[in-house]
Amino acid sequence: MIDLKLLDHLENYLTEERNERFKTIITERTKHFTVATEDVYQLHNTSAVIRSCDVFGIQEVNIIEERNSKRIDREIAMGAQKWVDLNRFHSVKDCIKSLREQDYQIVATTPHTNECLLHEFDATKKSCFFFGRETEGLSQEVLDEADCFLKIPMVGFTESLNISVSAAIILQHATTKLRQSNINWRLTEEEQLEIRLKWISKTLKSYDEIVERFYQS
What we know:
With 217 residues, the chain is an alpha/beta fold. The protein has a single domain (36-209), classed as SPOUT methyltransferase, trefoil knot domain (Alpha/beta knot). 44% of the residues lie in helices and 13% in strands. The protein has 10 helices and 6 strands; from the N terminus they run H-H-E-H-E-H-H-E-H-E-E-H-E-H-H-H. The chain has helices spanning 4-11, 16-26, 43-55, 74-77, 80-83, 92-101, 140-145, 163-179, 189-201, 207-216; strands spanning 33-38, 60-64, 85-89, 105-109, 127-131, 148-150. It has a 6-stranded parallel beta sheet with strand order 3-2-1-5-4-6, with helices on both faces. Helix 1 (4-11) crosses helix 9 (189-201). The longest helix is centred in the last third of the chain and has 17 residues, at 163-179. It is elongated. It starts with a helix and ends with a helix.
C-alpha cells in the first residue's frame, strides 16, 4: 500500500505544473498492452521503442537480452526510460512465462504472414507485441509460442520496416482502437499511486533524504 501522507509530502517539492502533469498523464497509462523486444542489436532501436511506448501510454516494456546486453541509450530515449517500467529477461522462455502469468496473449509482429493485418487486430484482448532482431526477426521460439501473428500492410518493394518504426505504427493504431472501446484499459488506482511515487523518486535528486526526514519527524 502506498503511504498517501508521504506522497502528499513529496508532491510539495514539485511545482504545481509538474504535479498536474503527472496526474494527467497517469490517467492515460495502460498495462492492457505491453511490448517485448528480443535481442535487438542496435541500441537506438530499443531506446526508440521505449520512447514510442511512453508517447502512446504503454507503461511496461519487456527487454529480452539473451544474446545482447546493453544499457538504454539515454539520448535516443529522451528520458522515456524514467517514465516507462522496464522488465529485463535473460531468455525468451522466462519472458513469455511471466507474460502468460499476467494473462497476456503473445502477438508476434512479422511481415511474413497474413494471419492478422493491423486494421483487423482485436484491441480488446490483453496483448504483448513482440519485436525481433533487426536482420533475423523474431526467433522460432517466439513464433512457436505466439497466439497470433500481426502484420502491417505494405504495398511497396520494401518488405519490412525498422522495428522502432513498426512499433510506433502498431502502438498508435492499437491504442487508438483501445481508447475507442468500452473496456476498462486504465491502471487501477493503486497502480497509479505507485507509479506517481516512482516518478517523483526519479524527479527529486534528494528523494531518499526527504523520505528519511519525513519518517524521522
